[in-house]
Amino acid sequence: MELLKRVNEKLNDLFMIVGGICLVLMVVISCGNMASRFLGTPMTAAYELIGFIGALVVSFPLGYAQMKRSHVVVDILSRTFPDGVRKILVTISLLLAIGFFSVATWEVGSYANTIRMSGELSETLRIKFHPFIYGVAVACGLMTFSLVVDFLLLWIPAKEAGK
Amino acid sequence: MIGITGIIILIFLMFLIELPVGFAMAIVGFAGLWYVLTPEAALALIGTEVWSTFSKYGLSVIPLFIFMGQICFYSGVNKSLYNTAYKWMGRTRGGLAMATIMACAGFSAICGSNTATAATMTAVALPEMKKYNYKAALSSASIACGSTLGVVIPPSVVLIVYGIYTEQSIGKLFWGSAIPGLVITLLFCLTVYIICLVRPEMGPGGPRTSMVEKIKAIPGAFEMMVLFTLVMAGLYSGAYTPTEAGAAGTFFAVVLGLIRRKLTWQGFVASIVDTLKVTCMIIVIVTGAVIFGRFLTISRLPFEIADFVSALPVHPWVIMVCILFIYAVAGSVMDALGFLLVSIPIFFPVVTRMGYDPVWFGVTLTVVTTMGAITPPVGISAYVVAGMDREIPLGTVFKGVVWFLPAYLIATAALLLYPQVVLFLPAYVQ
Fold this sequence. Notes:
The structure holds two protein chains of two kinds. By secondary structure, chain A is mostly helical. Helices cover 77% and strands 0% of the residues of chain A. Chain A contains five helices and no strands. By secondary structure, chain B is mainly alpha-helical. Chain B is built from 22 helices and no strands. The two termini of chain B are 43 Å apart.
């Protein structure tokens, strides 16, 4: 269990580093575009690039945000429940989230496959952009993995204590 | 009927099983689409919606403005802002609380986050107010209320999300919220003044400062002024897009932080980590809202509600007050942004059908839902203040907050009675 937890942390840390680099890149491209526009030679592909890189900026921290409990939860009612009941409800919540993100991983991946096989290019830069979609699919996959680790952590320590 | 069932299930998932707001909206929206359309169509839609929302150029404005605020936070801009306000206002009775509110307003103008402002001002201003024997109710409430200004004063993340979601100009929303933000700040200061006039022991005067000290403190507000002017002037003139304004703001925040030797490498890395976390949290809610909104649109519920409400034999003004009341109550039990995104698909068509201006509605909504950040049971800013100083019970913070509520009510009434307060400046935005 400890190994899974560590793998989850390491992977999410790695994705955060890539996400951070993408964030800085977004600033550089935006500022570069502004500067070049003032000089009379705007970078026409800047908007498209920022969109693609932005997709990585928002998707790569998904697992990390889950690990750090950053997602907004309304616990006003559930925190009044007994611990046992709450644990079961959180389990249902995690299972629903695992189900949804598994579907999202698969479907975003399928969409990337479709784009790759059709040979579709981006509108302005005329580049293959399916690697960015695959990136989002992988980030959704890591999110699913983080949710599974959370689910296991919720139940396995209890089992170990009972042994 | 299917739309109403979806909303009931959504409420159940959010409140009973602690499913994060964004996940709950996405799951209910997906299940609804599966039911209304075909399983194949619902599955395919998930893939395309997730990608198209994540890669939308318009949404890239969110991480950039958050990044700018985080850079300022880790550069200690809040401290220097407070110092400036403190030197100018600290001497008067209640002056430290007013200085706190002004510093909160200033920091909000570049940060845009309630909780970050509450946390940082608690650390900076609360010890000073304690030192000069300010009563805990006044000192803690002035921080909690002041921190909520971040949602109203531009650049506000909530306004950005509202603008993207309802396809309104972010520049117009920012300029529309500038005067209301200023009015609420002044009303808060007036509240402190009246409290200390009636009960002087609540906020005794601070130490005397000379004119030289006052003038020397002015550069403390320099970063805030530069960044605010840079962002707002660019948006006003149409020289750059909101995304570019965020990028330019971030760039200059880094440059100013380095020039003043306030921004360290650790601070820079921490600001990236915090930006990514907050951005991800917001985009998950936005994506959930997009999927949920798609389902509601197909169910035709928003249009049926809009038809029904607009046909009611009451003045639109009455309906608007009812809508704002719902937002005020909902804001006190759940996250403002979350509720905004859950409810916009339902209320936005109603409001536009009644002839209200979308920019006015967006700004008024932020003022009303902001109140929720300080009112029980889920007053997040009050929680942060009480959480950071264990000597102050949560009840004391909420008790102090009650004194500031009339300021919100007056501001909301002013926006309802005089929409030009909001619409005056956006009319000039290019």
